[in-house]
Design a protein that fits this description.
With about 150 residues, the chain is an all-alpha fold. Helix content is about 80%, strand content about 0%. The termini are far apart.
């Protein structure tokens, strides 16, 4: 508690910077934990995520195609696909908020699941610079690998 009082004595600009730093750290850790847990679960059940493969294939296709309409539709499709994770997150936040007064554990679980879905939504929307260094041949190879994985399952 003493450290909190000490921080509250700081100028507002430093408090804001500290809060922003904590928020950034929370965001970074949340994305990492969500991504790693999903990979671990896929490894345990020996099943690759078709969701991620579909997203990667669609994004890789935007680097190969020349049609602006197809590129725009692709980005709208990715945003629309991530929207269901966003909606699930807020459903669980609402359930957590509703059940918190009745059974506090249910509220906590609802909030944790809600954060999991928010971070999944964030992971579903990748940074495009992840793919921008690839040549056309490498992109086509990755697309072919995704196609072959999905045909096997």
């Amino acid at each position: 508690m003493e450290i909190l009082n000490k921080i509250l004595e700081w100028p507002v600009i430093f408090q804001g910077a500290l809060g922003s730093g904590f928020f950034w750290l929370f965001l970074l850790l949340g994305q990492s934990v969500t991504s790693l847990s999903k990979k671990h679960i896929e490894k345990i059940f020996n099943k690759k995520s078709k969701d991620k493969d579909s997203r990667d294939w669609i994004i890789l296709n935007t680097f190969v195609t020349e049609d602006d309409n197809e590129i725009n539709h692709t980005f709208l499709l990715i945003i629309y696909a991530s929207l269901h994770y966003f909606i699930k997150a807020f459903i669980f936040f609402g359930l957590g908020w509703f059940f918190q007064p009745l059974v506090p554990t249910f509220g906590l679980v609802g909030y944790l699941i809600g954060f999991y879905y928010l971070f999944t939504c964030l992971n579903y929307l990748p940074h495009l610079d992840k793919y921008s260094d690839l040549s056309d041949d490498e992109i086509k190879e990755k697309m072919a690998a995704i196609d072959s994985r999905n045909k096997k399952s």
